[in-house]
Design a protein that fits this description.
Layout: H1 4-9, H2 11-20, H3 41-57, H4 59-68, H5 88-94, H6 102-128, H7 133-157, E1 160-161, E2 174-175, H8 177-191, H9 209-221, H10 223-226, H11 232-243, E3 271-275, H12 288-297, E4 299-303, E5 311-316, H13 337-340, E6 354-355, E7 357-358, E8 368-372, H14 373-376, E9 388-392, E10 394-395, H15 414-417, E11 422-423, E12 442-446, H16 447-459, H17 470-478, H18 492-502, H19 509-515, H20 541-546
Antiparallel strand pairs: 1-2, 3-12, 4-5, 6-11, 7-10, 8-9
Helix pairs in contact: 2-3, 3-6, 3-7, 4-6, 6-7, 7-8, 8-9, 9-11, 9-16, 11-16, 16-17, 16-18
Length: about 550
């Protein structure tokens, strides 16, 4: 995001320094050695950069697919032979993945890279940096990021190795999920006294006390899933630390969508922790907003924010790799009809994150697509298959494929490309001509999540605090999202509905589906598998090949 990343990019120098230090017989050609670097606050920031680069590297791709496309929230179907990609998307959607699934392997690699880089950086700073407040804060930030990666890994894979010592040569067996949970909790609690409690540019994209409390709250909310023991009062207490800070507030309806625009950043008063992205940075850039939209519609545009389906300044995009012509959609991540059913309030601003139905230009004129009879419908049998055919772009709900009840293939024609409602929450910057990469920062924790986590904890049996009730907390979010009347009562289904609307496309839906007991439901394109062991992913074959001490997760073959 913006210029926030510029300081982090200085880590390339430090990475070279650390690498050269492995050969002690190499003559020193730089004044920056472990005896002199890192020493200052600026050098500590530079040395820490690789950890945050790794955090953002695969977050918007690998991590998103594992957390979203294994649910009813998003699906990337195939179009003829396009996007088969070894069935990695099909397997995620239908819960048929194996230890060889590409996303399963990539997720393990992504998180272990963060942990390994954090271990190395913590070791280097621990040996080289002088004692003091700056060093203490930097170490606490790094340990919090490592704890975050372990939380994400525990959530995805269950029992995982606890390997926190850089340079250790012994391979680690998996630690029980409860042990990993306890480790993350202990690390965060130890880091909190040394983390900063300020917001704004200086701490944006860096761990603060409130990120640590957010991770704790999320862990405690899911403690019954992770450890078998509910910890709702602890979740409430962690949420209250953030609420009592007075630093955050719920974004009003008028600016809700703007939180996710390419112009977002430190000014967002809901962002507790966001991952910054910049389109000019080649490592780990946030491109799934632009990627989806290029492949959704084959055009770049600025969504008006006021009328769903309205566009400004559309231009043809020839660089998305989708073989585009005119304005036809291409291969998108769409949502299922089951997930879209959560958007059941016509007065809710969150509806505007979707493109649905007939599409128009901003002036209200229809968005027309020119093709041929056969290009529109691959099953066309009438006369003149090559004759021109023009239609208004019309996005239709995803139900079953017309190629068969069990098909994951939607076809390869205009009808197929129009199937599925598209999420445009992370609005792309249509003025960006550099690449499909985007500058939308991605929030990992928002204040509305804290409020709804506290509400759910109270509803599930936690002790109310600060004069709040589960109902009042849910309504405090809803009043900033819809003009409909406040709720008079809530149920677990209401809480699930609100979370689905509020955090669509923000990598929390798998976590929610499991906690609410909905992960084994049937939905989308023949997702009928209800095996409960799939609430965690298998240990990938690549990891087991390099560490024979790893034992496969229950339910998956070795």
């Amino acid at each position: 995001m913006k210029k926030i990343l510029i300081g982090i990019l200085g880590v390339l120098i430090s990475a070279l320094i650390f690498t050269s230090c492995q050969k002690l017989d190499v003559a020193v050609t730089s004044e920056l050695t472990p005896d002199t670097y890192p020493q200052t606050a600026a050098q500590l920031t530079s040395a820490s950069g690789p950890v945050y680069i790794n955090l953002r590297s695969d977050f918007s791709t690998t991590y998103f697919f594992l957390q979203s496309s294994s649910t009813d929230e998003s699906v990337l179907a195939t179009f003829g032979s396009d996007w088969i990609d070894g069935n990695k998307y099909l397997e995620l959607h239908r819960h048929t993945w194996t230890k060889d699934n590409a996303w399963v392997a990539a997720g393990w690699s992504y998180l272990t890279n963060i942990i390994g880089t954090a271990n190395q950086t913590i070791s280097i700073i621990g040996k080289s940096a002088p004692p003091g407040a700056s060093t203490n804060t930097t170490m606490a930030e790094l340990k919090t990021t490592r704890a975050l990666a372990y939380f994400m890994m525990m959530d995805l894979y269950g029992n995982v190795p606890l390997d926190t010592l850089y340079g250790a040569t012994d391979l680690k067996a998996k630690a029980p999920r409860t042990e990993v949970f306890n480790y993350v909790e202990k690390e965060l609690k130890a880091a909190i006294p040394f983390l900063k409690s300020t917001t704004g540019v200086a701490t944006y994209g860096l761990p603060t006390k409130y990120l640590a409390y957010s991770i704790l709250a999320k862990m405690y909310l899911n403690a019954a899933v992770y450890t078998g023991t509910a910890r709702y009062d602890d979740c409430i207490a962690a949420c209250d630390q953030i609420i009592n800070s007075g630093l955050y507030s719920i974004e009003p309806m008028a600016t809700y969508l703007q939180m996710f625009y390419p112009t977002n950043g430190p000014s967002q008063k809901e962002f507790i922790f966001a991952i910054p992205y910049d389109p000019s940075t080649s490592n780990g850039t946030m491109f799934y907003a632009r990627y989806d939209l290029n492949r959704n519609l084959g055009i770049r545009y600025l969504y008006s924010g006021s009328t769903p389906g309205s566009f400004t300044n559309p231009v043809m995009n020839s660089s998305s790799g989708g073989g585009l012509s005119n304005n036809k959609p291409s291969g998108p991540r769409m949502t299922t009809s089951e997930f879209y059913a959560n958007f059941d309030d016509a007065n809710d601003v969150r509806n505007k994150q979707w493109l649905t139905g007939l599409q128009t230009w901003q002036d209200g004129s229809p968005l027309m697509v020119s093709t041929t009879n056969l290009g529109y419908n691959q099953f066309y049998t009438g006369g003149s298959p090559a004759a021109a055919y023009t239609y208004q772009l019309n996005l239709t709900p995803l139900t079953a494929s017309r190629l068969g009840a069990t098909s994951f293939d939607l076809g390869k024609d205009e009808i197929a490309w129009n199937v599925g409602y598209r999420n445009i929450k992370f609005l792309p910057d249509y003025t960006n001509t550099i690449s499909r990469n985007q500058s939308n920062d991605v929030p990992l924790f928002r204040y509305s999540d804290i409020v709804l986590m506290k509400a759910e904890s109270i509803f599930r049996g936690g002790t109310p605090t600060l004069g709040a009730t589960a109902l009042s907390l849910v309504n405090s979010v809803r009043t900033n999202r819809t003009t409909s009347a406040a709720l008079g009562a809530i149920t677990l289904d209401v809480l699930y509905n609100e979370r689905s609307k509020e955090f669509a496309w923000e990598t929390w839906h798998r976590n929610d589906m499991i906690r609410f007991g909905k992960y084994e439901a049937s939905y989308g394109l023949s997702k009928t598998n209800s095996e409960t062991f799939r609430r965690i992913f298998p240990i990938p074959s690549t990891a087991m090949a390099t560490n024979p001490k790893l034992v496969q997760n229950t339910g998956y073959p070795n």
